[in-house]
Amino acid sequence: MQLKPIAQTASGCTSSGCGGRSDQLTHLPKHIREKVHNHPCYSEQAHHHYARMHVAVAPACNIQCHYCNRKYDCTNESRPGVVSELLKPDQAVKKVMAVAANIPQMTVLGIAGPGDPLANPERTFETFRQITEKAPDIKLCVSTNGLALPEHVDALCEHNIDHVTITINCIDPDIGAKIYPWIFWNHQRIKGRKAAEILISQQQKGLQMLTDRGILVKVNSVMIPGINDQHLVEVSKVVKAKGAFLHNVMPLIAEKEHGTFYGIMGQRGPTTDELTALQDQCAGDMNMMRHCRQCRADAVGMLGEDRNEEFTLDKIEHMDIDYQQAMQQRAAYQQQIEQENQQQSRGEMVISLAALKSKKSLRPVLMAVASSGSGVINQHFGHAKEFLIYEANDMDVRFIGHRKVDLYCHGGDSCGEAESKLDKIIRALEGCEVVLCSKIGYEPWETLEQAGIQPNSEHAMEVIEEAVAAVYQEMADKGELTQQHHAWLATA
Ligand code: CLF
Ligand code: SF4
What we know:
Elements: H1 30-36, E1 51-54, E2 63-64, H2 89-102, E3 106-111, H3 121-134, E4 139-144, H4 149-158, E5 163-167, H5 173-176, E6 182-185, E7 188-191, H6 192-212, E8 216-223, H7 231-241, E9 246-251, H8 261-265, H9 272-283, E10 300-301, H10 313-317, H11 323-344, E11 365-369, E12 386-392, E13 397-404, H12 415-428, E14 432-436, H13 442-450, E15 454-456, H14 464-477, H15 483-491
């Protein structure tokens, strides 16, 4: 395996003066930092550098959610409408070895479906057992609806599973009855409020048992407008009190063609603004995850990319893997990532905006960033499948989410379609005033400008937060950030 250079990152001072990134993990105790520093879901910073993979070994489920129709992957940790290739444990292990040998930044193996991993305990734990034996450098992670969690907490500990996600959509059985029509419990199908009551009690019990044992728990919640949206603020408080580490509020995706109850009934999902507002409300009580990509049950690669097609069963069949050698290369590669990260955050750099000195009230600005990873601006505008959205204000720069777009540039002869695709991108970037990328063509540049979004490729290969801070600074220097200027723009 040929190791590629990781990234050419800008380091030290930038045009913003003392620009830099604030490390979100510094406030955590050392043993927790060690557990999350290379987990792409538990650490926002890590998701720029490390990859995860899922193996779809768990077909059965023990509950019914109104946003699932069972033809597809578990929507609790995935987006609906996606079907993964089901694997037996032996096949899954072979695939993990192949991926680990070829993607050295893949640090985490998760089991997240296509049903519920703990409703398929033999297949799930057999996969984990073999991975621990053959690839001990890989972290293990599991995602569950929680119904069978308490009875499996000991097994999770025995298999060194350090990260568990529980999907908790409510703590009120009356709300639960609107989300879960039934559960399968003690060999019986139980319906309505009683079913929700049992599920909630099992989830809360399992959460407490895990945190008592020092296992990191992330709670996923599906935001269902009109059903549990405001209630999730209360959920956040309760799970935090029980020791959950992170809360991931995900949008409901309900389309008629998925054949789910909510899809057919026309239940809508939240808008981007509604989701951000709820995440902000919950954030007062909890660390929030905002970089989730609702990845499929057989996802492979960095969050937001899916390299599963490179590792189908027929392809891995012919791969010859020396895992001892691969493990050394993985360790070297990951050490290189850590060294680069340390250089970037040397001296606990904190973004310090000279705009602060202006003592004027400056408005926040949303910026979209094209990045293919490593925490730097390194992607051509036309190649971006999604944009990372950052908010800059006069206090700091924060990541607030991502927006998916159709690929604008396919290369070849697809230019005729380009205009409408660009229109879609502009719609996806609603509310953003700047788009930062490594390069951009003349035509999209003009169209973006006309739409009120300023393209900027001057910060190519710079650390994202530093570049966003620098651009915010430039806007402040030009007087574009005063509330009056904004009001003028709105009426112009
Ligand atoms: Fe997989 Fe989940 Fe583990 Fe991550 S995913 S089992 S914690 S390794 Fe991550 Fe994917 Fe969001 Fe899940 S981005 S859907 S939160
Ligand atoms: Fe579907 Fe997952 Fe809910 Fe089971 S837990 S019904 S697989 S969404």
